[in-house]
C-alpha cells in the first residue's frame, strides 16, 4: 500500500483501528498495511498514516445556540465561518463536503467536536450548510473526503 496522499492521524484514547479506518473511509487492512502493523493493538499518541477515501455520512448543522461559545480547539464558534465538528478526525483537518443531491461542494476545517447525536457523523456551521444547500433540511447525507 502506498503512502502517497496519506494523512497523519494521532491516536486518541478509546480509538481503534476500526474506528479510525471508518472515519477516513478506508479499511483496517489498508491502515495496517501502510503503517506496517502486524497487530491491531494501537496506543494513544501513536501517529498513523491513513489513505482517506470518500465516506457517505449523515450531517447536521449548528448555529445560533452555539454562536459565540468556545469550541474544542479553543476558538470561539462563529456560525458565519465555514467550519465543521467531527468526533474522530483531528482538529485542523481539512475536509471536502459534497451534497450529492445538488453537487455543491465546500472545503471546511474541523475545529470542534460533535455531533453527539446517534447516527450523525458531522456538524457543519450554518454558513457551510447554506453553501451546500442543506440548511433548510437540517439533516442531509453528504460525502466527505479528508484532504491531504
Automatic annotation (TrEMBL):
GO process terms (BP): cell wall organization; peptidoglycan metabolic process
Listed transmembrane segments: none
Keywords: Cell wall biogenesis/degradation, Lyase
InterPro entries, per database record: LysM (IPR018392), LysM_dom_sf (IPR036779), RlpA (IPR034718), RlpA-like_DPBB (IPR009009), RlpA-like_sf (IPR036908), RplA (IPR012997)
Keyword Repeat: no
Limits of the LysM domain: 7-50
CDD domains on file: DPBB_RlpA-like, LysM
GO MF assignments: lytic endotransglycosylase activity
Enzyme Commission no: 4.2.2.-
Keyword Amino-acid biosynthesis: no
Function, in words: Lytic transglycosylase with a strong preference for naked glycan strands that lack stem peptides.
Similarity comment: family membership: Belongs to the RlpA family.
PANTHER family for the chain: ENDOLYTIC PEPTIDOGLYCAN TRANSGLYCOSYLASE RLPA
Protein name, as recorded: Probable endolytic peptidoglycan transglycosylase RlpA
Lineage, highest ranks first: Bacteria, Candidatus Niyogiibacteriota
